[in-house]
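ESCALATION

Customer reports they have been waiting on this structure for their group meeting. Please prioritize. Original submission:
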Amino acid sequence: MKKLYIIIVLVFIFRPVMPVVEYMVNYDYISTVLCENVDKPQLECNGKCHLAKELDKTLETKAPVHLEKATVLLDFIPVFTYKTELDFVDYSFKKDFEHSSYLNLYNYLYSSFVLQPPIV
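Update from on-call: job pushed to the front of the queue and completed.
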C-alpha cells in the first residue's frame, strides 16, 4: 500500500514532464506527422510546435488555485492567563571563604512541608 502511494505521488510530480518524455520517445512520428510546420523546413521546428501545445494543455488542466480571503469571525477571543509563583534559592557561595582552608559546602533547602515517616 505504501508503494502505491509513492507511485501516485511520483506520477503527480512528473505529470508536467510527461509531454517532454513522450516527445523524446516518439520524436520521428511527431516531427513527420504531427508537426504543423512540415512544409516550412527553414523553421527547423521538428515537432516543437506540437510539444508546446501539449505543454500548454498540461498547464491548463491544472486546477487553478482560488485565493479567496477567509473571513474569521472574532465573536469570542480566548484569553488565557497563568500566574506562576516561583521561589528561587540563591546557591552562590560567599567570596569571603575562598581563601580560608575550611569551606562549609553544606547547603540547606528550606521547604514549607514536613515529610511524615511511613506508617506500618
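Sent to customer with the following note: The longest helix spans residues 48-60.
Escalation resolved.
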